[in-house]
Structure formats: C-alpha cells, structure tokens
Amino acid sequence: MKTIIQISFLAFMSLLSSCGEKEKKQDNGVVDETVIPVKISRVQEAFRAEPIRVAGTVASAEEARLSFKIGGIVSHVYVKEGQAVRKGQLLAMLDMTEINAQVNQAAFASEKSERDMQRVKNMLNDTAATLEQVQNATTGYDVSQQNLKIARFNQSYAKIISPIDGTVTRKQINEGEFTSAGTAALILASNSRNDWVVRVGISDKDWARVKLGDHASVLLDAYPEETFKGTITNLAQSADPVSKLYQIEIRIDPAGKRFATGLFAKAELTPSQSRKYKVIPIEAVIEGNGNKGFVFVNNNGKAKRMAISIGYLDGNKVLVTNGLENVSEVITSGSAFLTDSSALTIKN
Asked: Is the pTM of this model over 0.85?
C-alpha cells in the first residue's frame, strides 16, 4: 500500500512540473490576441433619386359627395350602398310639405306685390300717389320675385340627383331622419375604368422632392402578383390640419383589372429630384435598425464606432444620407468582432 501511495505522489508532482513548464512557455510568447485583422472598403459617392414608400387606398378620381341644399326630414332614399346609378337618376328626396308651402307662400306674396304695384301706378296717373310710392311698390314687387325664385330653387334641391354614372360607396342617411343643409348624404364614385387614383399623405420633406408627372409603382393586396404603373397627378398645397401630411393623388392604370374604392395600396414614388449619397457595402453596417445603423472606421490603427443614417438599400450596397462626412474608408470584414478602440491590423 505504501508503494502505491508513493507512485501516485510522484505522478502528481510530475504533472505539476509539466504544467509549470507550459505556462512559462506561454508567458514567454509574443502572441497578442487583442489585435483584430480586418478588411476595409472605400466610401463611394452617388447621385440617386431616393424612392418614397407610402400606403393609401384606391378611390375614384371623380368622387361626388352629395347633400341637400336645405335641411329637412328625409322622405325617400332610393339607393343602397354598392348600387350602380346613372347620371340624372333620382337618389333621395326630402319631405316636401313645408318646402312646397314656402314656395306657395312666396308665390302669393309675389302676386300681391304685383297688384299693389299696379294700383299705385294707376293712382299716380290720377295724381293720387307720388312717384316715391310707385318706386317703393316696384321695389317690393322685385323683392317678392326674388324670394319666389329662392323658394323654387330650394325646392329643386330638396332632391338628390346623380351627377355621374357611378356607384354608391356610402349612404349616410335613412328615411325619417332629419338632415342638415350641406351634410354629406350620399357619396358616389365614378365607374370610369381609367379613373382610379391612390390617395396618400407624405411629409413636407418628401413633398418638396416630388412634382406632377413623377412616376410610381403601386402594389395592391387584392392583386399581390401585379405591379401597377402610376403617375402623380395632384399635389396638395396645404397640409392636413390633423395629420400634418400633404395629400397627393397617384393616377394608376388598372391594366384590365377590376378595381373598387377602398382597396389597400402600397406605392413607391420615384422623385425626379436626386440627391448625393455615400455608398458603402452592406457588410460594413452593424446593429441596423430602420434607417439607423453603425459602422467602424480605422482611426490610426484603432477602431472607431460611428452612427449613420441610412437612406435605402440598393442590392448589396447601402446609401447613407448622414454620418460619413470626411470618412474615406469603412471596415467590412471583421467588424462584428470590434469594439471602440480595438487594435487593428489591415489584411488584403
């Protein structure tokens, strides 16, 4: 037993001696693992028209928001949502009881004022009235004629007549309800096959970059395999007071497809105005999040982390709008292993 213990002790001491020799060899070495080999790439410049990506809905360019000229009780609504209508078709009307009575009242007043005017003129011939009285009676007659014209005009607009061939997209009144003057009662969309637009809102920055006639590509969820061509045909001259965005209209070619109001659309606008970008390889970007990211550059043999603003991606290239001023090279291969101030060695 004593012999076995002695052999084990000698083996343990031999192992410690061996480890000590290895540690000495490592301590005497010159390998420094903090120096990271990297590759670099030159920063290029390019002038591009950065696309603008927005979303909106399809609508008819010729849309009619119809209402009554005067307020009143809705007597009849002759159409439903989704129903096709013809130009000149009667769509809705108010209860005419009060309106017709106002027309009759104005007509009676006009007849009376005409009799009064004629009587005063006869009295003037008999020197029983003055010229002033004749003039006053004539003015009263003219006023009554205008009141009659107003009453008849309101009577004619107590009905809603379709101004276009189209489809009822929204019905906002029902029979028996009271509606106010000018309140939208029915909304119609034109049935013209080539009369479709996408309405979207863009920021003031993007509004300044686009102009009438600029092209767009439109994708519809209803036709996921199709790309439709579009052209900007209208630019709002003031921002929406709620969203603070500027509305634009993109007229699209349906290319034989069936469209409907309200289809969801995604559009990519191509502005005619271009701008200068810094162009770097996509592998140089780390920690990208939306239009923000970071790159490393060589700062006298040390890594330096810099924030950049990304315009958009073009294949395997990144177009940078901000953050690379006075920078001519960025680190590509090896950047994932770097931290600020890491020692670098450039490899070919």
From this structure: no
